[in-house]
Amino acid sequence: MLRAPCRTTGPPPHRQNDGVSTHALDPRAGTVTGPLRPLEIATVAILSGLTVVSVVIAAVIPLATAAGLLAPVPIALIAARTRPRAVVAAAVTSTGVTFAVAGLAPALSVLTAAILGGLVGEVKRRGGGLAMLTAVGIVAAPVLAAASVLVLWVLVPLRNLALEVLGNLAEGIGKIFRGVGLRSIGDGIDGFGRNIVDHWWIYMLISGAVGTLISLYVAWWLLVGVINRLAHIKMEDTLDSSRDLTVDEDVDPLPLRMSGVGYRYPNTEREVLHGIDLALIRGEFVAVVGANGSGKSTLAKLLAGTEPTVGVVDRPGAPGLGRTGGTAVVLQRPEAQMLGSRVADDLVWGLPADAEVDIDGLLDEVGLTGLAMRETSDLSGGQQQRLAVAAALARDPRLLIADEVTSMVDPQGRRDLISILAELPRRRGITVVLITHRDDEARAADRVIHLQAGRIVEHRPEWMRPEEHNPQLPAAHAGGRPLLTVEDVSHTYMAGSPWEVTALHRVNLQVNEGDGLLIVGGNGSGKTTLAWIVAGLIEPSEGRVLLRGEPTSEQIGKVGLGFQHARLQLQKTSVSDEIMAVGGESVGTAEVGHVLDLVALPREIAARRVDSLSGGQMRRVVLASLAASKPDVLVLDEPLAGLDPGAREEVLDVLAGLRRQGITIIIISHDLEALDRVCNRRVELAAGVLEGSL
Amino acid sequence: MSLKTPPLRQIPGDSVVHRLWAGTKLLIVLMLGVMTWVLPSWPALILVAICVIVMAVAAGIPLGAIPRPPWWFWVLMLVAIGVSGVSAGTHGMLVALRGTVLGLVVLAMSILVVWTTPMAELAPALARLMAPLRVLRLPVDEWAVAIALSLRGLPMLMEEMRMLRAAQRLRPTSRADSGHPSAELSILDMVVAAMSSAMRRAAEMGEAITARGGTGRLTAYPSRPGRADAVALLLIAAACAAAITLTVLL
Question: Are B231 and B159 in the same domain?
Answer without folding.
Answer: no
